[in-house]
């Protein structure tokens, strides 16, 4: 039995990704191999990030035994600090053979102390805050992480891949391929693959371009010079400029700035951090320089942007940490 403990703010796509591979496996095999149920702490359907209440079978009993406990969370997980909820997760985990933290579910597992001295993954938007909150967790930038009886995923697509891999472990590789094929999902990714910047799309980009962007993504708070990036990918600065212009239609400096400002906009709209903190976290020397760059990029200053509620806040009253 797979018990999926669904929490408010979860994504519809993530919730579906956690069970659809199991349903397809049952259909492909012609028998009930996997059984699951969605439950909540209070028995009510949690409101998802899109404002739709997700149906559940009822109230979750943390004393009930299960093969797999999957804690599914999304926006607002970092603010879920209620001791009763954390204690519920801790007790439930003791009665499960395998414990999963799905998308932002690792926040609850870590807060219960279950991930101390374990490797784990979480959504890339939460990486810095999660690492600061739980220094005893060996956080990895992977799509999903399996460490003993704990499995953590970073989002909907990695959850789907992880569940397909669970099918492989139970029914074998051909069955897992059949499940993936039934969803026309032809790009199964491994657990240790990095969380991908989707702005690269599906094109066959030059590996040096990909490495350059990875360097930028890991230096949002402390920007490195384009010349330094070029040296690390064994190119001249001029050659890197030409590569970016040819494949992305913009200079590496402009691309790097757009990454930093995109990160800043998420922090402006989805957190309560001060503008000074956001400026620091995204590599700006002052709040004023940050505000000018933000206004040029998005057409309004960051304080005005914050006054406009994000979609998740409008429909669910929650925000990603």
Q: What does this entry show, briefly?
A:
By secondary structure, the chain is an alpha/beta fold. The protein has helices at residues 12-17, 20-29, 83-94, 105-111, 127-133, 156-171, 173-182, 207-217, 226-232, 237-248, 252-270, 275-281, 287-298, 302-306, 311-316, and strands at 2-6, 36-39, 66-73, 96-103, 119-120, 138-139, 144-147, 150-153.
Judged by helices, strands and strand pairing, the structural class is: alpha/beta
The main β sheet shows up as: 6 strands, mixed
Radius of gyration: 21 Å
User: What are the segments in which pLDDT stays under 50 over at least 5 consecutive residues?
Assistant: 311-321
Helix content: 40-55%
CATH architectural category of the largest domain: 3-Layer(aba) Sandwich
CATH topology of the largest domain: Rossmann fold
Give the domain tally.
2
Q: What amount of the residues lies in strands?
A: 5-15%
CATH class of the largest domain: Alpha Beta
How many strands? 8
Choose one word for the global shape: globular
The number of helical elements comes to: 15
Order of strands side by side in the largest beta sheet? 2-1-3-4-8-7
**Mean residue pLDDT:** 89
Order of helices and strands: EHHEEHEHEHEEEHHHHHHHHHH
